[in-house]
Fold this protein.
Amino acid sequence: MIADPVVKRRPTPSSTNRQLDDQEVRSPQQRSTAPPRGLVQTDSPNFLCSSLPQHWRCNKTLPRAFTVVALGNDVPDGVVVTVMAGNEDNSSAELRNATATMKQGYAHFNDLRFIGRSGRGETD
């Protein structure tokens, strides 16, 4: 099966209607400066994710599914999404169930768990 991609081309906007065209291209989430409730901005302007609790015990399920949201239509359904986490003390936390599949712009991690220590405790 061979898919023939459809390429949409927009005419080059003039300087008088440039601002209107930029606003039309943006999704509703991008027009607002604040992300939707329960979601936070990431280092990438094209993705939002669920907020995490301030403190969480290791190897416990989060209180709600962790979600990654792709803004726009750049990420097709079926793409495998892997999340990584870290903080100032531990740049690469050990995670369990850190992969999910993108579907309609959302990747839901139903049982994401932080394994091991957070890196906050000093042992000398």
Notes: Confidence is low (pLDDT under 50) at residues 1-31. The CA atoms of residues 45 and 71 lie 8 Å apart. The chain is about 10% helix and 25% strand. Helices lie at 18-25, 28-31.
